[in-house]
Amino acid sequence: MHTHRGAGVGSDLPGCPTESRPASRYALAWRALKGLGTVLDQAPAAVHDVVRDRGGAPPAFSDRKLPETADQVAVGTAIAVIAYEPGHPASQEVFDWILEADRAQYTQDGQQQGRRIDRWRPAGERLTARVITSLNTTMTFPQQLRFGSAMPHPRWPAHTKDQAHRRAAMIPALLWPSWSMRLLATGSVDTTVPHAFRAACSTYLLIPGTRLGFAAAGRLLGHQAPRRDRRIIDRLFQPASFTAPASALAQLAHALDAHGSPIDYARRRRLLTRESLRIDHRAYERLCWDHGRKPGAASRQRHMRAYLLDLPGVAPADHVVDVPSTFIAEYRKFTAALPAWLRGFLLDQARANLARHNIDEPVHWEPPPHWVTDVDWPGVEPDDVDRTAFRDAISTCKTTTEAATALGMTPEHVRLFTALSGMTAPEEEAAPRARGRLMPLQGELAPERLRTMYDDQGLSYKEMAKATGCSNTAVVSALTHASIRGRQRDRPGTVTRPWLEEQCVLRGRSLRGIARECGMSAGDLRKLAVHWGIPVWTGLTRPLPPEISFLPQPLAPDLHRILTSKISFETLRLLPQLPGQPSLCAAERRLGVRDIRHPLLRIERILGFTIIQRSHPLAATDPGQRLLARIEHLVQSAA
After folding, report:
1. Which residue of 198, 260, 451, 626 has the fewest C-beta atoms within 10 A of its own C-beta?
2. CA-CA distance, 467 to 475, in Å (whole number)?
């Protein structure tokens, strides 16, 4: 077993010059003189005392480089000494005022923290660290992590890309269970995506000391939905509670750099995949029968494979398994309710998979808790959990939620502690499902009333819906419930081409309605229509216009496609008059229409050929002549 180490920690603020008392005091004095001219009204009493001792009026200071007069040097130095010496009673108050004077030069405070801190770096490590700590409350959560502002010793983000990759090799896809218990608040917790919180925390471990963004850090850990994970954190961590998790994650990240990890997670992510996993199914089946359990269906196999990727810290289940959204809830129940014999079997299988790739590492490891100090944990400390009381609660309670209430935890804390302790949590209570015999309908939808309207009076679904005040769907469901068969319309014993063409083309009926009448599926009926070349109404088209709906003969397929699209019958009537016109613009003027060009183009796209050649004068193509002849015949029939 080896220890995978990151880059050394080095000085508190890598990239900053070593401490220089003159440089630090100059940085404070220069900003103090600027503050006398911009935010003097906000200055503390100690600053006013210095100004009063030097004559009562603040010295004018406009240069951005160096003080010019003795008064400027004296006043600036006196204020800088107060702010620089921590033992002075007004030190912090004056220092905060100088920071406010420096902030006044920026218009967007929250987005300029990096630039502000960078301006202080020439002043040395100690002063820059103090600036970072003072700005902690004005920073966003990622900024607090990046600069370590909530830590006892902040750090300037000076890690290189290689150092970030080395740290990523020491971080699992999901944060370790014990650290997740400490960071997950015991109050109202959003667990709509169970693994998202742990995945986001692991991603945030790559932010301290680096310039990585959240999405780039997530990709280093193999996460496929980093934005979703970050939204979960934004809902759980409010600005008022940033300090504890920011301090803990930043300290843990830098401790990993200093002490290393016995596990190379980057190698595991590269070698352990869905395709490379192996499970001894024969041994699993024998073990199931020995414990009086059935091996389970394919879903159990998916859960086991996901667990074998989750256990060694390779990838969370919702990132590697192509299953429905309900899989995560089922997988959460599976992992929490794992019996000891199955948990031990899967642990042995994880060791075997590591050995197949010549990986001599422990399956699981967690950083020791003493790596992080001075943090008021928002969650539960695993060492403080009474194991006897926990075992009694999960053995007597029926559900995980009930056990969590008895223990004063959230259900997620219970599941995390079962993963740490190897205990088995109670199964979740399944939501009741409506099963059994349907209750008979009453009132307007009573079977006797339905039979009278449908069989005796011969009403249609629409008429029955209007009479009963219900929707068509409710009427059809009520008829099915009452075992009332639909009326059989006059039709041939088998579906023939003339009959189907009459129903689809002439009457403009939908395939679903025809299929319900024939006792066939709409899919089978569609296959027949396609085979016979019969155009059908799909719902994306419209019925035939009323001018020609009475025609005894069915329309030709090309005319039917035109008239069931967005082309009006009036537009179709004008097409035979286009040949011989000088141009389309002249045709529009002579025929008294605003636009004939676009309807013509739409018809040509529908049919797939050019109808009118854009020559001078206009002329019909060969297929266009045949189409225009059919249109003329149709217009004469409808006259």
Report:
1. 626
2. 10
In a domain, 604, yes or no: yes
CATH number for the domain including 595? 1.10.10.10
416 shares its domain with 470: no
Whole-number Å distance between alpha carbons of 263 and 5: 10
CA angle 490, 491, 493 (to 5 degrees): 130
Give the residue numbers spanning the domain of 221.
161-265
- Helix, strand, coil percentages, rounded to 5, for the chain: 55, 0, 40
Q: How far is CA 48 from CA 24, 26, 55, 291, 323, in A?
A: 22, 20, 11, 82, 69
Q: What is the pLDDT of residues 82-105, one digit of tens each?
A: 877 777 888 888 888 887 777 766
Separation CA 99–CA 89 (nearest Å) = 18
User: Is the residue at 106 inside a domain?
Assistant: yes
Residue 70 in tokens: 């003795």
Q: What distance in Å separates the CA atoms of residue 98 and residue 240, rounded to the nearest whole number?
A: 24
Residues 319, 231 within the same domain = no
Assigned domain for 435 exists = no
- pTM score, whole prediction: 0.58
Count of domains for the chain = 7
Distance CA 157, CA 362 (A): 32
Last residue of a domain, one of 232, 265, 298: 265
Question: In angstroms, rounded to a whole number, what is the distance separating the alpha carbons of residues 462 and 507?
Answer: 18
Is 492 in the same domain as 475? no
Question: Quick check: 217 and 230 in contact, CB under 8 A?
Answer: no
Residues 628 and 600 in one domain: yes
The answer to whether the Cα torsion of 396, 399, 405, 409 is positive or negative is positive
Query: Model confidence over 390-425: pLDDT tens digits?
Result: 888 887 887 778 888 888 888 888 888 888 877 766
What single letter denotes the amino acid at residue 339?
Answer: P
Q: Which two tokens stand for residue 112?
A: 């300029």
